[in-house]
Amino acid sequence: MSATDARLTTSVKRPSGRPTGEPTLEAIGITKDFATLRANDHINFAIRPGEIHALLGENGAGKSTLVKILYGALQPTFGEIRWKGKSVTIVNPAAARRLGIGMVFQHFSLFDALTVAENISLALADGAGVATLRERITRVSAEYGLPLNPNSTVADLSVGERQRVEIVRCLLQEPQLIIMDEPTSVLTPQEADDLFMTLRRLTDEGCSVLYISHRLEEVKQICHHATILRHGKVVAECDPQRETAARLATLMVGAELRELHAPEPVNAAAKVRLAIHDLSMPRPHPFATALDHVSLEVRAGEIVSIAGVAGNGQDELFDALSGEARAKSAEAIQIDGVPVGRRGVNVRRRLNAAFVPEERLGHGAVPRMPLSENVVLTRHGTREGLVRSGVVNFAGARGIVGRITEVFDVRKGSPDPEASSLSGGNLQKFVVGREFDRQPGVLVVCQPTWGVDAGAATTIRQALIDLARAGSAVLVISQDLDEILEISDRVAVISKGHLSAAHDARGMSREDIGLLMGGAGHGGGAGGTHAH
Amino acid sequence: MHIELIRRPERSAWMAFLSPVLAIVLTVIAGFIIFVASRVDPFGALYIYFIDSLTAWWSIQDLIVKMTPLILIAVGLSLCYLSNTWNIGAEGQLAAGAIAGSVLPIFFPDWEGPLVVAIMLVMGVLGGMAYAAIPAILKTRFGANEILTSLMLVYVAGYVLDWLARGPWRNPAGHNFPNSRQFSDGQLLPVIAGQHITISIIFALIVAAAAWLLLRKTLTGFQIRVLGQAPRAGAFAGFSQSRMIMIAFLISGGLAGLAGVCEVAGPLGQLRISVSPGYGFTAIIVAFLGRLNPLGIIVSSFVLALSYLGGEGVQIAYGVSDQIARVFQGMLLFFVLACDALIFYRIRIVRRVVAAAPVAPAMEATRGRV
To answer: A108 is in which domain, residue-wise?
Structure first.
């Protein structure tokens, strides 16, 4: 019986209580100072064998710092790490791996053009032959229910499969503790269930998992124990199964979360503000996705979401909508009835459209430039007076930074810091706020709350709803199903560059969207290795 | 065992400023060792190299004369490098400017006056621009690597210049020397100080100040910086990469051409088989040593101009090779890039192969700052 078949006979069970036993890893009084900022403040916690231990906290709560210390990428200012009862100093990630600590990163570090086996052999220290490695990969992946062909080229794999490569790479080093940073953020619900199965199997063998996630429901589902950080301190430890998601969120944020204001129904007769008509685009490079006759209309007052697993044409669609890639015909994209398919991004911005790309650093913002110059980046051509006869009014841009900061609560160390010095969530608030500040008539936003904490996510989602209700057309491209169901009026799913018809969001469940995301709508698809 | 360069999470602004100073100190130390190895009195040689030229008015004049083309060219190159466009061919663009600027005085020796000089300058600028447009077009139309094409075109320009000076444009009354006729007095740039300091140093200072303002205050300068640091963000801002390549080449080519015409209509007074002791290449060092900042370039051009004069001085006083100035300039570039690399990256020695780590080219280190 293959591992995939075995999966079907077992269902994801809730864990039964916290395992007992001497801790695998114990942190005692871990403190880390960055100049004047104390990122970790006397953190104590212990991970027991066979335990899935959740690490919760808002952006900037100190989770990343703590994980980097445990993985040897940072050294604590003071404090002690005990590994199986013995005090250790983890000088670098290689030392962490030698101890038996593995890590699966949120962003994969794989070479698209190489095979699975080649990618894994690059990471292994022992330099074993690729033939033995292939055999080991096949064995380990079967053992843990992670079906993987060592000879596949990474470029051909779905995101879920790529994550399996990362996990198998980690498992081949036989870790006793695996740190996972937001592992489900890129997965379909079905793929996430597969991952949870694998984690159960690992913990059954006594391996521990430190699990970082913003998704409280899933933490409740799989984690035995949770440590909650706020402002660098441990504020609570709890059994997540005995708490409600709302209570966990309150512990993280330190205040009750605002409820989203329920959206009102859309007037079906409202005018179409953003129209995509039969848009096809060739793939810009061999590892990209071609767009295949995409059509969609977004009306004034509504939020339409495009769901889908990453890499199914979302980036290409965004580039076509923003004008970074030009369509073949002008009519393919229309903003307020004006055909703009062949026009550039600034022409579209002058028609009062705004765009927020997924990649914040390097695409939505220049990392080494201050926020004020990053305001100029998207607003120099919008006739706001930021540029007069070729001269840029940077003082005016600084004023806009102040406004955005206030409205979206962007936390920063100095009035006008470099974009790269902001934490991911705060930079996202800035990048989104920069476009909201213009009150755009059409907004196309990719992953609006990706990597953003619960409090900020609520702020951004509420702002999207308010913008739509004020008469704008909002198109959200997202992989976060909870977000999509929370804010959308209609949902379409993109798969292999093909966009489904938009459905009324009220009639849809997570599973409905999940199946469409996996490509069930038209046979096979990105998640093709699943036994749906 | 191998060595990895790991990007530092934080850069030290202080060290970035100190890097050129450190590079100069290291160059002096290395020079000391070279002089000792060549059995030359190192203290005397270093004195002549770095101090002696500053003690006499005539050599200070010479210093300013040599700084002028270095500033003009390096300012243009800094705009290129900041926009991530790699023009290595300023030496060829300088020659093209010198040739174009020599057309009037060679064919119409009787046309004199300020207007003629102004036209000569404009023709020099246009000549440099036209020559720089070749690699720019090759890059934007065919994706040809501009480093290679611009560098190769240097040699083409050099041979064209050589042919003109020896052949069709040779002075018929010049006893077969491979030079053009002497330009008439009314075809030369006005001298503003001493015997050789022409108005071109004013041009250079104005150009540096204008470039500084361009980078700091204008949308074009903003485009240069954005496209140089984050091309994808540049596209998102609606800036065109290929338009920027064209602009960067035209500006830097035009300024190199201006430097060329200022040489023939200034210190040289005629077109020769060689119109530059490698200013176009030395300006690359000037640009990096000056942190790609137009005002910093004024300071670094002083250091490099000194290296020319000091090289000649040591050659005369101690009989060392005439390549000594090139050696010092090369060491200076090497050390400034090495210092930059260590400011941006730290070195880790890895005993066993662990994982492929990104190793970034040192040249990249100086990008992204003005």
So the answer is: 3-12+21-253
- What's the mean per-residue pLDDT of chain A? 83
- A61, A186: one domain: yes
Task: Please check the confidence at residue A364 and state whether its pLDDT lies above 60.
Answer: yes
pLDDT of residue A510 exceeding 80:
no
Burial code (b: 16+ CB inside 10 Å, e: under 16) for A348-383 equals bbebbbbbbbbbbbbbbbbbbbbbbbbbbbbbbbbe
The residue from A405, A439, A473 where one domain ends is A439
Q: How many CB pairs under 8 A join A and B?
A: 71
List the CATH code of the domain at B2-366.
Answer: 1.10.3470
Q: How far apart are CA A346 and CA A323, in angstroms?
A: 8
CB atoms within 10 A of CB A21: 12
Q: Does A270 touch chain B (CB under 8 A)?
A: no
Question: What is this structure's pTM?
Answer: 0.74
In a domain, A305, yes or no: no
The answer for residues whose C-beta is within 8 angstroms of residue A86's C-beta and 6 or more apart is none
In a domain, A478, yes or no: no
Interchain contact, B222 vs A380, CB within 8 Å: yes
- What CATH number is attached to the domain comprising A122? 3.40.50.300
Q: Is the dihedral of CA B82, B88, B94, B99 positive or negative?
A: negative
Token pair, residue A164, equals 């399996």
Residue in B2, B222, B366 to test binding to A, most A beta-carbons within 10 Å:
B222
Q: Is A118 exposed, middle or buried (0-12, 13-18, 19+ CB in 10 A)?
A: middle
* A349 contact B CB<8A: yes
pLDDT tens track for A144-196: 878 888 888 888 887 778 888 888 888 888 889 999 988 877 777 778 888 89
Is pLDDT larger for residue A130 or for residue A170? A170
In a domain, A90, yes or no: yes
B285 vs B51, B207, B326, CA distance in Å?
21, 18, 11
Of A408, A439, A470, the last residue of a domain is: A439
Q: Say how many C-beta atoms besides its own lie within 10 A of residue A423's C-beta.
A: 19
Q: Helices A454-469 and A424-436 meet at what angle, rounded to 10?
A: 10
Helix (H, G, I), strand (E, B) or coil at A345: helix
**B contact set with A (CB within 8 A):** 217-220, 222, 225-226, 229-230, 232-233, 235-238, 352-356, 368-369
Q: How many domains does chain A divide into? A: 2
- Cβ pair B222:A362 closer than 8 A: no
Q: What is the pLDDT of residues B75-105, one digit of tens each?
A: 999 999 999 999 999 999 999 999 999 999 9
Six-digit token pair at B115? 């207007």
* Residue A123: inside a domain: yes
